[in-house]
Specification:
mainly alpha; 344 residues
């Protein structure tokens, strides 16, 4: 019993004192921010028709809906065109700022604007909107700017100062990260099981029929490729298998397996974006996928990239030396050598 208590106390202390998934959540912020920013920017010419006071989705019905179902939306506060444009472009600026800087306060504001535009006309989404809404709520308690942000250095310094000591923010961060991973596993596994139960997916022909739906044909190359029986069968079964593997990939200690599955999932979404034109959906889903990869995985990947760059630089230096051209920083190259600088 004492051992169980000790193990539980150690686990709780680890959850509350050491933040996890910092790199993955930072990438999640960027990809999700790109998705929402692209959503705003791509619809600027059509914003009045889609969400404005005189849009096809009537303002009076929208106002009544927000009152009946106790739904909050900034767009419901006024039916004026100036107010609509102010809220729309403010949402765009907030989305861009959150993508670049992050921070909990920006996450909360961004979530308010995204919830507002979603409720104004929920039919204008490519899919993944429910998952995006859930993830934005969870990200309110997470540190999403420890990397890839102008504020990252200061954020990491603050995290290092309180590392090892239990803290409420650390607990919220780790809980949010684990729940996002859990949500990703649920989405992919359930999606795969639904596919397994469908006859067209069992036969390996589902993507053929999907590629010939004109509303989702972004590139003429997509239906042409899916006309190949062998290719469409392979891609159809690949989509099922790689989604089923997300759960074991999230739980395994084998880094290569997790990286391979996430790479396969990313490839699937890139294919959806290129073939079907579902750009915001693809970025949103890859944002969730980024959290499946752990910090140690990213650190190992960064080390491999750094070593590769060093090897490429070394080979370039060798080729330069072999060709008889002095390398940069060597005597005779036009730049003083280190010894000459120190002597000066």
């Amino acid at each position: 019993m004492d051992r169980l208590k000790t193990a539980a106390a150690r686990a709780l202390r680890g959850v509350s004192s050491h933040p996890k998934y910092l790199v993955g959540l930072s990438l999640c912020r960027i990809l999700l921010g790109v998705s929402t920013t692209l959503y705003y920017v791509s619809n600027i010419p059509y914003r009045a028709f889609l969400w404005g006071p005189d849009s096809y989705s009537g303002f009076a019905a929208f106002k009544a809906l927000t009152g009946d179902q106790h739904i909050f939306s900034l767009y419901a506060l006024s039916d004026g065109r100036a107010w609509f444009d102010l809220v729309y472009f403010a949402g765009l600026l907030v989305s861009l700022a959150w993508t670049v800087f992050g921070s909990r306060s920006l996450t909360v504001v961004h979530a308010v604007f995204m919830t507002s535009i979603y409720h104004r006309n929920y039919t204008m989404w490519e899919g993944g909107d429910a998952l995006t809404g859930i993830v934005l709520i969870l990200l309110m308690g997470a540190t999403v700017n420890a990397h890839f942000s102008p504020l990252a250095k200061g954020v990491r310094a603050r995290l290092e100062r309180r590392a090892g000591e239990p803290h409420l923010r650390t607990s919220l961060h780790n809980t949010a990260a684990v729940l996002i991973v859990f949500q990703a596993c649920v989405v992919y596994v359930v999606s795969a099981l639904w596919k397994v139960a469908a006859p067209q997916w069992q036969e390996g022909t589902a993507l053929y029929y999907i590629s010939h739906v004109w509303q989702y044909t972004y590139s003429s190359a997509f239906p042409q490729l899916m006309d190949s029986l062998v290719l469409t069968t392979l891609v159809t079964y690949f989509a099922i298998v790689v989604q089923l593997l997300v759960l074991p990939a999230a739980l395994t200690s084998r880094r290569w397996f997790r990286e391979a599955v996430v790479l396969g999932i990313a490839g699937m979404h890139i294919g959806i974006m290129a073939g079907m034109g579902l750009m915001t959906f693809g970025f949103a889903m890859m944002a969730i996928d980024a959290v499946l990869v752990r910090d140690a995985d990213y650190q190992a990947l960064f080390r491999r990239v750094r070593l590769l760059r060093e090897r490429v630089a070394a080979r370039r230096a060798e080729r330069t030396t072999a060709s008889g051209e002095p390398a940069s920083g060597q005597p005779g190259s036009g730049e003083p050598a280190a010894e000459e600088l120190s002597a000066a």
